[in-house]
Fold:
Amino acid sequence: MKLIGAVTEGSGAVNEDGWGYIGTPDDVSAAWVLDGVTGINGKNYLSSGTDAAWLVERAYKHLLKLAALDISLREIMSRLIQFLIIDWHDSAKGVDLPENYDLPAACLILAKRYGDSWHTARLGDSSLLARAAEGERTILVASPNNAFDHRLAAEAAKRRAAGARDSKILLAEFQPQLAQGRKLRNKAGGYSILEANISALEFAEYLDLGKPSEIMLCTDGYFRAVDHYALYSEAGVLDASLVKGGVNSVLEEIRAVEAADPNCEKYPRFKPADDATAVVLRQSTRS
Structure:
């Protein structure tokens, strides 16, 4: 696969997204995107801007080594989580954490080539689009958390209609609901997420893509172009992202919509904007 484009941009002072790849731009053998989960602890306790950014940085560092190894995706995920557990214990030593501290977490999609086939591992709600060589089908891994997100967005819309505009105030008000939702992480009936907890390994999803001609990995902030703002269909955002400079253009469109709707009135959502990241790959023979 050839790296056609990649973009990552934060929505605030700290970008909690990340991405990376193994190989060269003309011969990518693995690629990934990471999306740090917004913290609800009231403040950050680690030394990377935010606690979520700390986890993303550590995961990125480990994936640079693990994704290059000739081992299964399940083994990569197992080692990654075990390394993160060690990192967490080392970093949390001497830190006075509150009793109800919410562990840093992130969404992850990792795509890796084995022979001439591609396989993916996924934790969280980032998205994957892949087109088969004949161009007749598109595979979408949709967000499993949309229902909860939509409920929060609807409740936040009511608060905004009543005059509550400050996102930080809304975040504080919804902290109990967010905390309750996070108790469902990596549990039966809940949702998957990457965190320094071995239970995450049981909830990782794996998909055999076969021999796709094109792959896009993106965080939910980028996929808003489809599921929130209806700027593109699933196939359309893949097509738009694959042209030269396409990922930057799509992101500019997303930011323009968000800037024109700062109070989330036209497009109900919990946060006015989100960190956004996308990576697009194409078989070299089609470039």
Summary: The chain has a mean pLDDT of 88. Residues 73-92 form the longest helix (20 residues).
